[in-house]
Design brief:
This protein is α+β, with helices and mostly antiparallel strands. Helices cover 33% and strands 30% of the residues. The strands form 6 sheets. The chain has a 5-stranded mixed β-sheet with strand order 9-6-1-11-10. Strands 13-14-12-15 form a 4-stranded antiparallel β-sheet, covered by helices on one side. A 3-stranded antiparallel β-sheet has the order 16-17-18. The longest helix is centred in the first third of the chain and has 22 residues.
Length: 405
């Protein structure tokens, strides 16, 4: 089977409440969502959900009704503390904080302040906290699918904010989407900072809908009506028809000529622990004939900030460079096979229904080799043979531990 994919089509725009409504229309349980959001503590809000239509398309509309006016400004650190002290799961917390971080850094850049000095107004309001944390909860309920999005509409005109009259797209929205696409559209604020933050932190950008076996479709309907497009965001949940299909990925790199082998080895481990799909170092000859290394990591856009921090904290680099690439990973799954010395997990790489690669887990094989005093290569060979007998005569990646990343 292919991996689960969530395809986001911001046809008329995207805002936090529209994404939340589309997830509910897709099938996420409202009761589950309310129960998880209650773990944020007594914020004094109620989720109101109703059926809505735009251009005769039926969807859901969500409003966050407050028990009282939320007039408090909130510093970035206060929002992080609120999330950290909640009863939400660890991955939901990290996802929600990543959205607030990209929004906060954009606001800090626009207003020439540090992230710590930024106080959120609209985005710091309870409804935006609910929208962002609720979106992370919904993704968890959907099984953390690969989230892909088309470029959202730019909108045009001006809007009134607490900072005064602002052009559309809002300056923070443009900063959040730096490096990603915006498509031209009619007037109005089509993409809010919260909506942009969800896309930037939690999705990869694609130019077209991937080939999918469609399983569910959901529509979130906005408040305003547009003259040139239905004000909806459409979510399509399904399985990639052939393997995973293409995924957008980021290549993060830095040149090092003053790092020891021990530091580089630790940095590679830390990059993998920090969310990188793969990490490696390549020897190079730099300026003035000095030997050095290029430290590289592949990651999804939502993991970029964590990966960037590893580069800065674990190496003496003064900065990193980032480029966008397309990845074509095989559809993968893990299976347990038995050898004469015990069980081993193997990765199966599939192209459609065909198993084309088999990779035993190195650590499993090494543990059995040490425990039974046999050569590692014999355990690797036995694991591959057992997997081939069960799943077909697939080829074996060189080294028996390739990830294909």
């Amino acid at each position: 089977m292919g991996r689960d994919v969530l395809f986001i089509d911001p046809a008329g725009g995207i805002a936090g409440d529209m994404f939340l409504a589309a997830c509910l229309d897709l099938g996420v349980s409202l009761d589950d969502l309310k129960r998880e959001l209650s773990k944020l503590g007594p914020l004094g809000f109620e989720l109101q959900v109703r059926r809505a239509f735009d251009s005769s398309i039926a969807g859901l509309h969500v409003e966050v009704k407050l028990d009282h006016a939320d007039v408090h400004e909130r510093a970035y650190r206060d929002i992080v503390r609120l999330i950290d002290e909640s009863g939400l799961s660890a991955q939901v917390k990290e996802s929600a904080k990543s959205v607030f971080r990209v929004i906060g850094e954009a606001e800090a850049h626009v207003h020439h302040k540090s992230l710590e000095a930024i106080h959120f107004h609209e985005v710091g309001a309870i409804d935006s906290i609910v929208d962002i944390c609720g979106a992370a909860v919904c993704l968890e309920r959907l099984g953390w699918p690969i989230a892909l999005s088309l470029p959202p509409p730019a909108g045009s005109g001006t809007i009134q904010t607490v900072h005064g009259l602002m052009p559309v797209p809002a300056p923070a929205t443009l900063e959040i989407l730096r490096g990603r696409g915006l498509r031209p559209s009619g007037p109005g604020e089509r993409t809010t900072p919260t909506g942009a933050g969800l896309l930037a932190a939690l999705t990869d950008e694609v130019e077209r809908m991937p080939e999918l076996v469609v399983e569910r479709v959901g529509y979130g309907v906005g408040t305003k009506s547009w003259p040139d497009a239905p004000n909806i965001v459409r979510l399509v949940c399904g399985r990639a028809a052939k393997g995973h299909g293409t995924e957008a990925g980021l290549l993060v790199q830095t040149n090092l000529d003053d790092a020891s082998g021990q530091l580089v080895a630790r940095a590679i481990d830390a990059l993998l622990e920090g969310g990188a799909a793969d990490a490696w170092a390549t020897p190079v000859v730099g300026k003035k004939g000095r030997p050095g290394l290029v430290l590289s990591a592949l990651c999804a856009e939502r993991d970029l900030e964590r990966v960037r921090k590893v580069f800065v904290r674990e190496t003496p680099t003064l900065g990193v460079r980032v480029s966008r690439h397309e990845r074509w990973p095989l559809d993968r799954e893990q299976r347990e096979v038995w050898t004469p010395w015990g069980s081993v997990l193997v990765k199966l790489g599939r192209e459609g229904d065909e198993v084309v690669n088999i990779a035993p887990e190195h650590d499993d094989c090494l543990a059995l080799a040490r425990a039974h005093g046999v050569p590692l290569k014999r355990v690797l060979q036995a694991a591959v043979a057992a997997a081939q007998a069960l799943y077909g005569n697939a080829s074996v990646p060189k080294g028996n531990d390739a990830t294909g990343e």
